[in-house]
Write a structure and sequence with these properties.
The complex is a heterodimer of chains A (329) and B (359). Among the domains of chain A are: 95 residues; 64 residues, no CATH class. The mean pLDDT of chain A is 92. In chain A, helix 10 runs parallel beside helix 12. Helices cover 52% and strands 10% of the residues of chain A. Chain B has a single domain, classed as pyruvate-formate lyase- activating enzyme, CATH 3.80.30.30. In chain B, the strands form 4 sheets. Chain B has an 8-stranded mixed beta sheet, sandwiched between helices. In chain B, helix 8 packs parallel to helix 9, helix 9 packs parallel to helix 11 and helix 11 crosses helix 12. Classes of the chains: A alpha/beta (329), B alpha/beta (359). The interface between A and B is medium-sized, with 31 and 28 residues.
Chain lengths: 329, 359
């Protein structure tokens, strides 16, 4: 059986200066990787790029943009290329996507760009795109997914950076609920604070909720969070405090319950070897008292400390400190 | 176009000549039904549609139920169970509520109607054989019990089945005012017509296609007058603008149409949802404010209002209901024992009225 796609020439070397870029085919993001740049600088381009040659001999690159950019950066004069005749560009686009997905997992930013290109540049609608591309991209054939991807493709640069860093489509799509300028502001702020993928997703979710509940803009929410954290604090701690500050805005009652619990706990003066754990989100019936001991004597000293608390409590039921721990129910 | 407005009817080959299929064909004469060998091969997910949930609600699929009709409501570990049994005669609901779990729960998005109703009778007898404890059964878990009643008359069929099986109490739970067929039947002690109720604000923003509160309660008034027992379900209770006043008024309205002795039970369930439903609600009900509150993840992996808010909701409703009907059985839906204790001062086991309802 012979393949159905457009047939290339054998590998030839093309002058880099003669090659023009067809952006309709560009979906790799980020557009450069330092590892590839280094490899090309050391060993040159090994895998040929794909070129479409028009009747007037115009040479357009349609696959291998990162290799092409790395070769230019490294100052190479020529690049190995497979050459195709003009006329079957959409088939080439599909083959180009399939080539990529066969060797690596595309991120959400890239997948959304593929769908956008197929729709906007090649003029195909949902039916045709889902028919030929969804399988290659590992997507379920769903109109909803198609719409979500097109929405993500319209994001600005900061949002694209975030969604391309390993975010799921569902998480990426949450950003669609923000106005474009607010989305960019939020994403820049998230990047500045260097949150990982899951914290970024949580942050987007929380700020989206706060927007809806408190009717505040992203700028106002960020300003509120910033106002509660000292600007002099170092980055990782500060980012973490900002996250807590937003979480408190999102769940003020839960935050108050946690604060009250902590205050009650501190007033008990328990030894550090005793950990008191409320149920997650205070949903449950029991508090856990955990005693950590590395030997017999440290266990005994913890027991003694707890006995003292118990004695004080039984003598003084009216102003019980211990019952403060159970105030959440 | 009358509601529900189906645009497609699929019929399994083997169900073509059943009485229920004939009724469905007569009820929607403008739709040419498509006869298919296997219902599962046809438009199950409807994922090619812009809104698969809405598209599913426009497709009626008739065929035999290959699984069990009756199942015990699975309940959830750690939560108080009300011992409800569920009959899945219809799966899927033409009414479109923002908070509906079915939007994410059912893999088949169509409205499916089981045509082998005779098998249901055998199953009921098998389930009831041997035991003596009262059993509560309902059809309102995966659909609305009366939504298709004007066209298909399922209520009468079910009532006839249960009328002669007094160990079981059948509840037909609805958000409609489709009671005409019930007014032609002799009431029975073990049949209860239940209404899901909410404030007019929530009904208009979050319950597309359901009857308004006035119509539901007017129907309840007629049903009571005719001699049937009724039940009411405040589920989901939703925090919204002036909710306290709104829910108190609903309680007042309920007891203005149904005297306490005719109310078999009332349940309270605070809005809860699987986290994945959030995006569905946002997408499908962009004008709804139902998510604009403080929620926390609970041990059963559902989001609920943070505990003090839930308690405020339950206590407000409980006080309003108890003031009007102190001995009407009142219970919480899908809550842990600590919430029961905080609201009622004890567990359902300590409540004689509830023990009779829960069995």
């Amino acid at each position: 059986m012979s393949p159905k796609g457009p047939a290339p020439s054998s590998v030839v070397r093309e002058f880099i200066k003669d090659i023009v870029v067809d952006n309709r085919f560009c979906f790799s993001f980020p557009a450069e990787t330092s590892a590839l740049n280094k490899s090309v600088a050391s060993f040159g381009v090994i895998n040929p790029v794909w070129i479409v040659k028009s009747q007037d001999n115009r040479k357009t690159i349609v696959s291998g943009f990162r290799r092409y950019n790395a070769a230019r950066k490294a100052g190479l004069e020529t690049i190995p290329a497979l050459t195709f005749k003009a006329g079957r560009e959409y088939d080439l686009f599909i083959a180009h996507v399939a080539e990529n997905t066969a060797v690596r997992k595309l991120n959400v930013g890239e997948i959304s760009r593929v769908i956008f290109c197929a729709n906007e540049h090649f003029g195909h609608g949902f039916e045709k795109i889902s028919d030929r591309l969804f399988d290659a991209l590992g997507l379920e054939r769903s109109r909803k997914i198609y719409d979500m991807l097109l929405a993500v493709a319209g994001y600005g640069p900061a949002a694209k950076d975030i969604v391309s860093a390993g975010m799921s489509l569902k998480a990426a799509y949450r950003l669609a609920r923000f106005e474009p300028d607010q989305r960019e502001t939020l994403c820049k702020w998230i990047m500045d604070n260097r949150y990982g993928t899951s914290k970024s997703s949580l942050m987007i979710d929380m700020i989206d909720d706060i927007q809806a509940v408190k009717k505040k803009s992203v700028d106002e929410i960020i300003a509120d969070a910033e106002a509660h954290v000292s600007p002099d604090m170092e980055k990782p701690q500060r980012s973490s405090r900002l996250f807590e500050s937003v979480a408190t805005m999102r769940n003020p009652i839960l935050a108050r319950m946690r604060r009250d619990f902590q205050t009650a706990l501190e007033s008990l003066n328990l030894p550090p070897s005793v950990e008191v754990i409320p149920p997650n989100n205070f949903e449950g019936r029991h508090i856990e008292f955990v005693i950590r001991a590395r030997d017999r004597s440290s266990a005994i000293s913890s027991f003694k400390a707890l006995s003292k608390v118990a004695e004080a409590e039984s003598e003084n039921t009216e102003s019980s400190k211990l019952s403060g721990l159970f105030g959440w129910i | 176009m009358s509601f529900p407005g189906f645009s497609k009817i699929l019929i399994a080959e083997e169900a073509v000549s059943t009485p229920l299929t004939k009724k469905a064909k007569a009820a929607w004469p403008d739709i040419a039904p498509q006869i298919v060998r296997n219902l599962a091969d046809h438009e199950l997910q409807l994922d090619m549609e812009p809104d698969p949930v809405a598209a599913g609600k426009r497709t009626l699929a008739l065929g035999p139920n290959r699984g069990k009709f009756i199942r015990k409501c699975p309940g959830t570990m750690g939560l108080v169970c009300c011992n409800y049994w569920v009959i899945d005669l219809v799966e899927g609901c033409p009414i479109d509520c923002s908070y509906c779990i079915l939007q994410g729960y059912l893999t088949d998005r169509r409205i499916r109607l089981a045509t082998n109703i005779n098998d249901l009778v055998d199953e009921i007898d098998a389930e009831l054989a041997g035991g003596t404890q009262p059993v509560r059964v309902g059809t309102g878990e995966l659909s609305d019990s009366l939504i298709l009643d004007p066209q298909l008359g399922l209520a009468e069929t079910l009532i006839d089945i249960f009328r002669t099986r007094p160990r079981a109490t059948l509840e037909l739970k609805t958000k409609t005012a489709n009671i005409d067929s019930l007014l032609n039947l002799e009431p029975a002690d073990n049949i209860v017509i239940g209404w899901s109720v909410n404030t007019p604000a929530i009904i208009s923003s979050d319950e597309r296609g359901a009857s308004n509160l006035h119509d539901r309660l007017a129907a309840a008034r007629q049903i009571v007058k005719h001699g049937w027992k009724v039940a009411f379900h405040f589920d989901p209770l939703v925090l919204h603008d002036r909710w306290e006043e709104g829910y108190r008024r609903v309680v007042d309205d309920i007891f203005s149409v149904a005297p306490p002795e005719k109310v078999a039970w009332i349940s309270l369930g605070a809005f809860r949802f699987h986290p994945s439903l959030k995006q569905v609600i946002r997408d499908r009900f962009p004008m709804s404010d139902i998510l604009n509150s403080e929620f926390v993840l609970c041990p059963d992996n559902k989001m609920r209002y943070v505990k003090p808010e839930r308690l405020k909701l339950f206590r407000t409703l409980k006080n309003a209901i108890v003031a009007k009907a102190p001995s009407t059985p009142l219970y919480l839906c899908m809550e842990g024992i600590e919430i029961w204790e905080s609201v009622f001062g004890g567990s359902p086991r300590g409540d004689k009225n509830l023990c009779q309802v829960f069995g």
